[in-house]
Design brief:
Elements: E1 2-9, E2 24-30, E3 34-40, E4 61-62, H1 65-71, H2 73-76, E5 82-84
Antiparallel strand pairs: 1-2, 1-4, 2-3, 3-5
């Protein structure tokens, strides 16, 4: 099992001009040392095909990183941004 240990990056924004696509970046850190960089829209709900960061909570558990990608397929396209930390 792995779990989300931290979600780093820009805070949520409610823009009067509507939601903007991929304007914000978050780093999702996992207990196994993996970090994933994802782009999200300004509201965080996954608009414009961006990552739905609002659906994540610290301490969410997954069987492994593949389980995470199955549950959040929009992150799978960003796998090249996955980084292993020592």
């Amino acid at each position: 099992m792995i779990r989300i240990t931290d979600i780093l990056g820009n805070s949520m924004c409610c823009c009067s001009g509507g939601c903007h696509s991929s304007d914000f970046v978050n780093i999702i850190q996992f207990s196994n040392g993996t970090s994933i960089k994802v782009n999200r829209c300004s509201c965080g709900n996954g608009c414009h095909g961006s990552f739905p960061i609002n659906r994540l909570k610290i301490n969410m558990e997954f069987d492994d990183i593949q389980d995470f990608y199955q549950q959040f397929p929009s992150a799978d396209s960003r796998r090249e941004q996955e980084v292993q930390h020592d």
